Amino acid sequence: MLKDITLGQYFPGNSLLHRLDPRMKILLMLAFVILVFFAVDLPSFLYLSVLVVGLTFLSHISLKVILQGLKPVVFISVFTAVINLFWTTGEVPLFTLGFISVYPEGVWRALFMIIRILSLVMGTSILLTYTTSPMDLTDALESLLSPLKKLRVPVHEFAMMMSLALRFVPTLIEETEKIINAQKARGVDFETGSLLRRAKALVPILIPLFVSAFSRATDLAVAMECRCYTGGEGRTRLKVMRLSLTDVVATLLLLALFSGIVFCSYLPFDFGGRL
Amino acid sequence: MKRKLQTLFLAYLEKSSMAEIRLEHVSYRYSPDTPFEKVALQDIDLSFTPGKITGVIGHTGSGKSTLAQLLNGILRPTEGRVLLDGEELFVNAKSRHAARFRVGLVFQYPEYQLFEETVFQDIAFGPKNRGKSNEEIQRLVEEAAHFTGVEPDLMDKSPFELSGGQKRRVAIAGVLAMDPEVLVLDEPAAGLDPSGREEILGRLVTYQRERGKTVLLISHSMEDVARFADELLVLKEGTAFLHDTVEKVFSDPEKLTEAHLALPQITRLILDLKARGIPVPASVHTVSDALFLLKKLLKEGT
Fold first, then answer.
1. Are B48 and B54 in contact (CB under 8 A)?
2. Span B11-245: which CATH code?
3. H or E stretch at A28
4. Is the pTM of this model over 0.80?
């Protein structure tokens, strides 16, 4: 059910990736996202796949869990692959079925696209969401964006809003399930009927959900004010982030590994497929 | 004439609608076959006596709420079957949907299920889903409101304007109005003040007595089940630990302690008195009974 969503979930642990400074992880993730697009041929995509599997081992999160987290992107990757398979034209078709011709270039493209999407999702979630608690993540964002404070951007407030939003995702999911069950017990039928009927069946879910979300927000605001929350000015932290030498070394090493993608794409081998 | 007979017959049917719920070796596990697997109920095999109030009691995490959701097909048992009058609940989507109306389930803190514009419409939501005619809905809503103590002048108000206690009553009325044969109440009085508790539980018992429904009262308050239930089901770590009449269950305090439960305070007081040599019977479980007994004893002038 709703609870099975793992995308964006945090798995507590004590691996190297868990301990790495979250600010560095954000920067590494950005680097990773950019470097993925340098993979253009078979060697570089092979390297990318090995890299992502390596990251999985580094994070000590079981491959099974990570693969489960990929479920939501399976459809889009298959869809992209199919489109690329049939819409790429080359010189000699592999085979022709009526008006559809499949070229070897298309097969390569489809394969590369799947690897690209899956490694993007896996890489970013392992680097960031799976191994970084939401609180660390928002703290890191705040710290990285703090130069913007000079431009009067309310960085702290944005970070606080983000951490509150993240904090309430599981709560709201739980709440939604509770409301769905209660309305099911009153005979709401979500499974049958026309689309319009099913959409109408959502009203008894959404209204209570909004009502409770608003009342929760009010309660939270009052509770924060009672504890004298006034915003970022002069606020100290429980956990102060300090960059250690290990963090720097680990970051540089990972960055070097990521750059391997670029290196591989310049290797003088030709396997036919190239994006 | 024929019509009149028909309505009489229907009314009779309604009064005698005592459905039997039976659980056959039911187990329930959350997230089965994953590292997060958690056994909530283990091999429950029993049936609830029709037309009686069965109190379901147990320590936190003993599986009370899971049991409630199994009874009307919100949750599907991992193993075993749930039978309503001998028919299985989980045959197909249709049978499951039908069971929702036959077994009314009031969740814990049911206020959050209110959503309609007026109290009347909200109570009418269940019967409307059941496909009742407008006249019937009118009658069912009025009856449900009467039983739960929702005053007629509240009917046109928004449910969000009401006080906590009123919301609770409206929410419970919303389930009663579906006219279920079995009523499952998960902590219906949780979070109410003492007089609110008293009133809502008292009203639900009146409803049960007048209609002869099968009622399951889930609670963690020994005092409440002692006062209102005919039979008790004690759950312990997901198993049916004891299932008997209130007297029999309370006659063995040690066994209750094993299930991390204690006798009602008043029973403990009476047992204390008995241990000190005062001639009192052991089976006094409610304050009013104890009051009556003690008054009598004092009058006799010991």
1. yes
2. 3.40.50.300
3. helix A22-36
4. no
